[in-house]
Amino acid sequence: MNLSVSTPRNADQTLHRTTHRTSINAPADLVFGMLRDASHWPYLDGLTVYSERVSGDDATHELRTSVVSNGSLSSSHCWRVFDAASHRAEFQQLDLEPPLRQLVGDWEVSTADGLSVVTLNHGFDVDDEHLTGRINGIIEDYALRELEALRVSCERLSILLQHHTPQGQPATQPAARSEAREA
Q: pLDDT of 77-133, one tens digit each?
């Protein structure tokens, strides 16, 4: 599911919003853990070629990534804040270049009918409203690809954990690694 709306901010700024959602057959803790630990993204999602947590901790941190977006390589720098209890993460892109003035968003993982439901919201503002459709299309393409990669990765990991968990014990998510590249 996707949804695009525009929210007036002031006379010369409009925050354009998008929402994308998918269901994943994996525990919510595992899905949230995959979102928080970006160190493995280059191996899983097919979009990210580099990811590094450059400061902070598991609750709030700065992240640098390089991704293939719209057919070319681009780098991003963002600040992420996590609320593990509610399975929610907020992000804000830093060091934006025109036409983007602002790019923010959040991830939320909830449960419904035995599945994890992941909602990815973006909000963006541009300095040239004529480019809104193009930017929205880039976000749309990337969000759909990112959610599908997350779904496939989480479902595969969930199956592996189920098969390798001693009988009678619940499958849990792997312990977080404590290395500089963790995100």
A: 999 999 999 999 999 999 999 999 999 999 999 999 999 999 999 999 999 999 999
122/68: higher pLDDT? 122
- What number of other Cβ atoms are within 10 A of residue 100's Cβ? 14
Place of tokens 């804000």: 92
Q: How far, in Å, CA of 92 to CA of 57, rounded?
A: 16
| C-alpha 46: how far from chain center | 14
Orientation angle between helical segments 28-36 and 132-163, nearest 10 degrees = 120
Q: How many CB atoms are closer than 10 A to CB 58?
A: 14
CA-closest candidate to residue 123, choices 18, 21, 22: 18
Strand partners, 15: 7
What letter represents residue 104's amino acid?
V
Write phi, then psi, for 7 (nearest 5 degrees).
Answer: -115, 120
Q: How far apart are CA 98 and CA 115, in angstroms?
A: 39
Angle CA(140)–CA(107)–CA(94) in degrees, nearest 5?
75
Q: What are the φ and ψ backbone dihedral angles of 68, each rounded to 5 degrees?
A: -90, 115
The two tokens of residue 35 are 């979102």
Chain segment 5-63, per-residue pLDDT in tens: 444 445 457 899 999 999 999 999 999 999 999 988 888 777 899 999 999 999 999 99
116 contacts 23 by C-beta, under 8 angstroms: yes
Strand partners, 124: 16, 103
